[in-house]
Give the backbone structure.
Amino acid sequence: MSDAPPAAPPEAAPGDYVFIHQPGELARWIAETERHMEALGEERCCLDTEADSLHHYHEKLCLLQVACAGRFALVDPLAIPDVSGLLALLDRHELWFHGSDYDLTMLRRTYGWEPRVVRDTQIAARLAGFRQFGLAALIHSVFGVQLSKASQKADWSRRPLPVHMMDYAVDDVRYLIPLADHLMRILREKNRVAWFEESCRDLQVDVAARGAEAREDPWRVQGSGRLHPKGLAILKAMWEWREGIARERDIPCYRIMSNKQMVAYAETFEAGGVMNPPAGWRPRWKKEFHDLVASVFREGQGAWPQRVKKPKARLTDPQREHIDRLCAHRDKIAAGLGIEGRPDRRGERGDAGSHARGRGHGGDASREACLLPEASGPDGVGGPADASAGREKRLGDPDGQPDPLEPGVPSGHAPDQGGRDRQDQGGALVGGRDRQ
């Protein structure tokens, strides 16, 4: 990282933002902001979002935090369905986020909108060599300012929003431009700006390409691959029952039963064990649980779902050695650059193996398999960081404990990630800023 002095953090004054919940107010703020930005010659805006997937079945966008040339606004999309004027303003400028994957996904899902130019301070921080790149960690490291995490898992659909939640929300965009200035200085010194811009474009392409179609057999949750037809039958029945209850009561699925818990029940059922529902469940749920167990037996084996067989090609010893050499070479280059060789090392050999067998993108094992940069940039190598670098808005256990109102998650079973156990991208997408 650079020894260049950081930009001075902006002064935070209580109430230096507006909460906008009327269309007329939004139109006036947009017009005033446009004139203000033109007068200053500012070409950058910041955006963040808050949603409610930790608290409701029907996930929705609940707040838009906007910063433009020192003007801060919290826009209520629940009260103003049409924010096209705001989106047009943002599209006329370079738009900065922190950890934008979830924001871009929700904006696309809600408004069908894809920003014209996206820049992400989390991707910039990774390429600059930071090892801790959550927003709070970066703000503290660069400016010495400690951000609160108190509202990280709050219900952003509640109205009116208390002042402390609005203060929390505006801090998500307050520091982004000074932080961006600091990070861009480092990237320019290291001649990595092209890497950064390419990584941001890759992220946009990745989000845009993510299909909105429902996943086939969404009940096949993590861990279901080791189940046989009997266990799969009860898992499917539990998943469908849980979806119905969650939809009916508009609560996230994890507050009824976690995926991990359902798989454990399925394994018990498969082994012929006793299926007792959690003691804290309400009588109706217990009865329905016993009914669905009985229904699986009534259906019979002919109706049970089958295991999905995926062909697995076994790597040869020379291929394994080749992969190990490639990854060691990648790690050596990354160490010299002061960045991570691979942000997520899970499944490294498996991913690389498909390329070693010539089934990767273009079969280029030497680069794709180990995520080495393009061999045409500065420092002898070049190219983008992994586009997944900006995807840190995935909280694990939302609460860490069962909900006191829904005692359906016994101790030892963490709730699933996010409100509806969304399985896209290998993890749930949830609302709220991950300020780790």
